[in-house]
Amino acid sequence: MINIYIILTTSTNLLVGMTNLLSIGQAALYGIGAYLAVLALMVLNLSLLPTLIFVILGTALLSLLVAYPSLRLRGDYFVLATLGFQLIVFTILYNWVSVTRGPYGIPGIPSPVLFGEITIYGIIPYLILSSVFALIVILIFYKFIHSPFGRALKAVRDDELSAQAIGRNVTGLKIWAFVVSSGFIGISGLLYASYVSYIDPTSFNLDEAIFILSAVIIGGTGNIKGPVIGAIFVVVLPELLRFVGLPDSVAANLRQIIYGLLIIVLMRLRPQGLAGEYALK
Amino acid sequence: MLLQFIVNGIIIGSIYSLVSLGFALVYNTTRIFHIAYAVLYMFCPYMLLTFYANLGFPLVLSFILAIIITVLLSLLMEFVIYKPLSKKKSSSNIIMISSIGIMIVVINMIAMFYGNETKIINQDISETVTFGDIIITYTQLAQFFISAFLLGVFILFLKFSKFGIRTRAMRDDDVLCSVFGSDTYKMRIVLFSLSAFFAAVGGGLVAYDVGMDPYVGMPMLLNAVVALIIGGVGRFEAPILGGFIIGILQSLSVWAISARWQDAVTFTLLILFLLFRPQGLLGEKRRAV
């Protein structure tokens, strides 16, 4: 799970930390990735690599539908548009029963097959697979940050007008950031679907979207280690609480309260998060 | 049948208007995207439950006490969270995220104390009145008339009282407003109280009818925000118009399609408005932030 969340938070960071776009629609993209993965694995019977490509491209293309209109909006309105997108996608996943099986979810998702022979099944192979993916994603983002594209994004983030003045296509750059980040979020959807082997829409609801966002914000924005720390933190904390021996019903709420308080305190004292380098504007 | 749906839409629309107006009071003037407002809507019914069902106070007294406590909670948010952040000149995104933090904390505290399941305040089945083909419960009637009364009083108050004029001034430019000698932080106390009052009344009325769980606030907040956007950010009449439009539209979509697609209809409408008429139906050009 840590690896899945690392991919989620690192990709979200591209929007929040690098481009100063606060999106509450990440869980919708995560869900789209998961459902596309199911489509590829169960209906089209693809093996792992084609599935991967299919999911990345599919999620990225669908995200373009959101990116194009919503990125012309600013500030609160952009947040609202992504929120609207999140809720629409959730409603569709939940109610289009003939395709997504709605609230019943899709059970029995097969394990992905690598190179036509190796079936990835069980905890250890998954650990390896997801770690490899997470590492690749981290590396790609590391490259990104130091590439001309990453620098241009940072320029847009820090001063949109100046970036525009020196001839950067600001909206175009934002759209690219959104689409690239969505493509990578698709990967985590794929990993989640094949790891848990059962998906239903409630894994991709508004709470999940807020959860992803808070992981990024707690960890920190603007660099690589922030989101990674955030992901590790939000996945490890529940285990820690279980270790302390709290009953499950209280632990779930208590965990949320800790996240909430942390967010409030961080926003006041350290708006760039635990390990981040950029404070939201 | 159609008429029944429209009437239902108007009744729920009156609640949306009320809640949306409360949100607008804070958003229009301070530019705080008060997500934790959802919590206030949910908090009042739980207090009502405590006073009315658990402690056995009379209904009206419990309602008043519940509203007072909700207002105090809202002021606590302002003093502990929003005011310091505003003084630090934090960005709107940071304030919004803090607000999400508050929401998470309060929802989970309520869930810890009262449990996650749906609670019902009023055990009896409400009596109904019939006008021709239309059936309305007394609770619904109370919802409509209380909301309509409050909305009417508020609009008059805003137009003619000194405070109303100051509020509108603050909406237009809060810095200039403080330059002219009104203490904007004092204004904010009144605004946060009033907005909590509207949320509390709305939340209490709805929960008395259909019960509540710790998560009822968020969907209501979203409807209120959509109502505000559709009506138009800036004018205080706008969320009222938007609230009724959304109420009727949702009710009609239940009639024409099915209840399950209500949210999709609402948010498609939101996105269409954001794209093609971001200033809303009654909107003027937005003040630069």
Can you walk through the features of this model?
With 281 residues, chain A is mainly alpha-helical. Chain A has one domain. Chain A has helices at 2-19, 26-43, 48-70, 75-95, 97-100, 123-146, 148-158, 160-165, 170-196, 206-219, 225-244, 248-269; strands at residues 113-114, 118-119. In chain A, a hairpin with a 3-residue loop joins β1 (113-114) and β2. In chain A, α1 packs across α10 (206-219), α1 (2-19) packs across α11 and α6 runs antiparallel to α9. Chain A starts with a helix and ends in a 12-residue tail after the last helix. Chain B has a single domain, classed as ABC transporter involved in vitamin B12 uptake, BtuC (Orthogonal Bundle). In chain B, 74% of the residues lie in helices and 3% in strands. Chain B is an all-alpha fold. A two-stranded antiparallel sheet of chain B has the order 1-2. The interface between A and B is large, with 44 and 41 residues.
> How would you classify the quaternary structure?
heterodimer
User: What pattern of helices and strands is seen along the backbone of chain B?
Assistant: HHHHEEHHHHHHH
Proportion of residues in helical segments of chain B = over 70%
In the residues of chain A, how many domains can be counted?
A: 1
How is the main sheet of chain A built? 2 strands, antiparallel
Q: Whole-number average pLDDT of chain A?
A: 79
Number of DSSP-assigned strands of chain A: 2
Mean pLDDT of chain B: 83
CATH class of chain B: Mainly Alpha
Give the helix proportion of chain A (percent range). Answer: over 70%
Q: How many strand units of chain B? A: 2
Question: What is the strand content of chain B?
Answer: under 5%
Radius of gyration of chain B: 19 Å
